[in-house]
Specification:
In the N-terminal section; belongs to the NnrE/AIBP family. By secondary structure, this protein is an alpha/beta fold. The protein folds into two domains: 20-213, YjeF N-terminal domain (Rossmann fold, 3-Layer(aba) Sandwich); 230-492, UDP-N-acetylmuramoyl-L-alanine:D-glutamate ligase (3-Layer(aba) Sandwich). The protein has helices spanning 6-19, 24-40, 57-71, 89-98, 137-148, 211-216, 226-230, 260-272, 287-293, 330-339, 351-359, 377-384, 391-405, 440-453, 458-480, 487-492, and strands at 48-53, 75-81, 104-107, 121-125, 152-156, 179-183, 201-205, 221-224, 249-253, 277-282, 298-301, 319-322, 347-349, 372-373, 408-411, 417-419, 425-428. Helix 14 crosses helix 15. The two termini are 20 Å apart. The structure holds ligand NAX, adenosine-5'-diphosphate and potassium ion. Residues 58, 124-128, 155-160 line the site of potassium ion (K).
């Protein structure tokens, strides 16, 4: 699914209105109907609902939502904050339609702001994507009062006061919703850690905007949903006469004294991703551990007891993964230095392989094109050599890094962002905080290396691997709960 900026979404609305054809008023009705459908599936008519509206089209949505819920016999109170002299045309039209049904409570000064009871629901339709300046005055007071209440808050399209495509100032006063129900496509802010408390649990509802516009309009941002991933047509079916040679031979290099578990986890995930053969190079202290815990893997023990030091002969391997548990010993650095120019096969760099690259930045120029780097935010900061100002700055640095080095970077976290060498970004839709546990990233390295080994092109291996890793994590969390989840559970739930 493509992710669009607010100006693009506005153009998308206009295109749909011009080409469907449909009036903007009808589109507002359609959007609000989709919201109400989502709402009624979750909340029954015993609750008290406060719809708090502004005077733009987001407020217009609020008025329609209020009307539709009244028609369904919900207990609805509608408030309008008078923040401008007149409302948008569609707001005014819907205000007129509401009049015979109920009294609208106007909030024109601070004393008009109601108390929102603990058990009630607040539907936030104050401001949407038309936000043009920070909220101030009694509009900000209303937001503050809603936030201070214990009511359940549901934002229409986007939380009032939250900017969709650019960072907010720390001082901005913004609704902190429990849920955001957004129209047609997620906003960029929804996949940024800094906006988390201004988004809550979010869901996109389809309002039938033009498919032709979406198809024809370019964007660097994508959201990897199940249907998007299915388009890669990566099959889990095997041909009857397939043999282990049909699925490639992976080489993983990692582990050091005390961190053999990391490379074992990667190895296990790599095997479960479907490779035909796997060889694992570890220091000698890892030999017994690996052979005992994973008899399916072949071991290539280094002469060194504690760390990896020897450049393996990489001929014959379909793909390489290096980094989990690797350590940063000077001998291991030497290995990496000598290995890099020899690599002709697709390669994944993770963990300490990335840290070594960060500390010896001249090595970055030796990365083969389309290599896959899988840093978590701290590792990415080290690779950059400097921190970012905010999440949007981080994304732009990520795009620039991938373009400059012609590599694929999977910046891990909730909504892992995969940056391609052409600057496009794919935000992942799967995964959960249960995966914030040691070893989860090692599993991802194994999965992506395994996909590369089977001949899947690097950009697909990265996007698909990240998606399937998160999906396996979601299945694991269902079984073990989020706190109970450990990295091995992700491996046990693998399969697609
Ligand atoms: N056809 C469409 O365009 C559709 C739009 N929809 C809704 O329309 C919304 C966007 O509508 P609008 O563009 O009218 O935007 P808003 O509803 O966000 O309101 C913008 C108005 O508020 C004012 N404003 C902006 N920031 C302010 C601030 N901080 N304090 C006080 N006033 C402020 C602006 O000057 C403008 O008059 C979407 O979020 C969505 O909810 C939906 O109805 C779906 C269809
Ligand atoms: N809150 C979260 N939501 C979704 N996925 C998460 C979350 N926290 C961590 N993960 C995933 O778990 C993995 C953690 O990787 P990493 O930090 O490298 O762990 P480790 O180094 O211990 O293996 C990443 O793939 C990341 O996307
Ligand atoms: K809103």
């Amino acid at each position: 699914m493509k992710l669009f900026t607010v100006p693009q979404i506005r153009a998308w609305d206009a295109y749909t209105i011009a080409h469907e054809p449909i009036s903007s008023l009808q589109l507002m009705e359609r959007a609000s109907t989709a919201f109400v459908k989502w709402f009624c599936e979750r909340f029954d008519d015993r609750c008290t609902i406060n719809v708090v509206c502004g005077m733009g089209n987001n407020g217009g949505d609020g008025l329609v939502i209020g009307r539709l819920l009244l028609q369904k016999c919900y207990n609805v109170h509608i408030f309008v904050v008078k923040h401008s002299a007149g409302g948008s045309a569609d707001f005014e039209a819907n205000l007129a339609r509401l009049h015979p049904m109920t009294t609208v409570h106007w909030i024109t000064e601070s004393t008009d702001i109601p108390h929102f009871a603990q058990q009630s629901l607040v539907i936030d339709a104050l401001l949407g994507s038309g936000l043009s300046r920070p909220t101030q005055g009694f509009l900000a007071e209303v937001i503050q009062k809603i936030n201070d209440s214990s009511a359940t808050i549901i934002a229409v399209d986007i939380a009032s006061g939250l900017l969709a495509d650019t960072p907010n100032a720390l001082s901005d006063i913004i609704i902190k919703p429990d849920y955001t129900v957004s129209f047609q496509c997620p906003k960029l802010a929804f996949v940024q850690p800094q906006s988390a408390e201004y988004v809550g649990e979010w869901q996109v509802v389809d309002i039938g905007l033009s498919a032709a516009y979406a198809e024809a309009t370019a964007t660097p941002y994508f959201f990897s949903t199940a249907s998007f991933i299915n388009d890669f047509k990566i099959s889990n079916r095997r041909k009857k006469y397939a043999h282990k040679g049909s699925f490639g031979h992976a080489l993983l290099i990692g582990g050091s004294y005390g961190k053999i578990g990391a490379i074992v986890l990667s190895s296990k995930a790599c095997l479960r991703s479907g490779v035909g053969l796997l060889t694992v190079q570890t220091p000698r202290c890892g030999y017994d551990i690996l052979q005992t815990s994973l008899p399916e893997a072949m071991a290539l023990p280094d002469w060194h007891w504690m760390v990896n030091t020897t450049v393996p002969n990489i001929d014959g391997y379909s793909a390489v993964g290096i980094g989990p548990g690797l350590g940063k010993d000077p001998l291991t650095l030497q290995l990496l230095r000598e290995l890099l120019p020899k690599l002709t096969q697709p390669t994944v760099f993770d963990a300490d392989a990335l840290n070594l690259l960060s500390e010896h930045r001249e090595l970055l120029t030796l990365l083969p094109p389309n290599s896959i780097l899988t840093p978590h935010p701290k590792e990415f900061q080290r690779l950059l050599g400097r921190p970012w100002q905010d999440d949007f700055d981080k994304l732009s640095l990520l795009q620039t890094f991938a373009q400059q080095h012609q590599v694929i970077v999977c910046l891990k976290g909730a909504h892992t962002a995969v940056a391609l060498p052409n600057g496009t970004l794919y935000f992942n839709s799967t995964g959960n905080p249960g995966m914030a546990t040691g070893g989860s990233g090692d599993v991802l390295t194994g999965i992506i290396t395994g996909l590369l080994t089977q001949g899947i092109p690097p950009h697909q291996a990265a996007i698909f691997g990240v998606y399937q890793h998160g999906a396996a994590g979601d299945r694991a969390a269902q079984k073990c709960t989020q706190p109970g989840l450990i990295a091995s559970d992700i491996i046990n739930e693998m399969g697609w």
